[in-house]
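Case study: DNA-binding response regulator.
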Amino acid sequence: MTIRVLLADDQALLRSAFRVLVDSEPDMEVVGEASDGAEAVRLAKEQRADVVLMDIRMPGTDGLAATRMISADPSLAGVRVVILTTFEVDDYVVQSLRAGASGFLGKGSEPEELLNAVRVAAGGEALLSPAATKGLIARFLAQGDTGDGDLDPARSERLAALTGREREVLVQVAGGHSNDEIAERLEVSPLTVKTHVNRAMAKLGARDRAQLVVIAYESGLVRPRVE
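Here is what the predicted structure looks like once written out:
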C-alpha cells in the first residue's frame, strides 16, 4: 500500500523539501500541502491522508488546534499526525500528544528519520524511537507539577478496567520499550504483547502507543523522573 502523506507547514520552502523527500520513496506519496491548520484538516478529509506531517506554529489555526480537530473527527480516525517542531523541548509537543498526535520529530532530523516516522505512524506501531519519545515526554511532564493534583482522575479510574498483565505491559510501553523488548522482559511472545497493547488501547480510548504513554503518566501509573 502507498502511504498518503499530507504536508502542513507555513513555510513553502520546507514543504517543497519534504515533498521531494517523500515522493522519492516508492511506498509514499504527497497528496496535499497546507499552509495552516484549517487547510490541513480540510485536505486530510478530501485527500484521505494516512499521515499528516504537522508544523506546530502556523498562522490562523495552528498545528495544535488542527491536531485536536483531526483527533475529534470520527471520519478521520485512521489519520495519524506527526508533529514537526523546531525545538526538541517544546511544551506544545506534549499538548499535541494529549490532543491525539501520534508523535513528534525535530525539523533538523535526518531524512531517513522522517521517512521512518511516516512509516511507523502509518503502521500504528511504536512511535518513532520509543525510548526517545518516552524520555522527551517524561521531561515535558516533569516540568509541571508531579503531585497527585496534576493527575487525571478519569484516566486513573479507567486503569481499573485493565488486567494485571495489561497494566504491566502498559508500564513497559511507557518505559519506551518495543513489543519485542517487552516480550523478552515478560517472557511471552511478541504477538501476546501486541494483543495486550491493543486491548489496553481499546479500554483506555487511546489512538496509538503515543497516547498510551501519555495516559500512563497522566494517570499516575508511571511517574516522570526529574533528573
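For the exam, be able to explain this: The chain has two domains: 3-139, 153-219.
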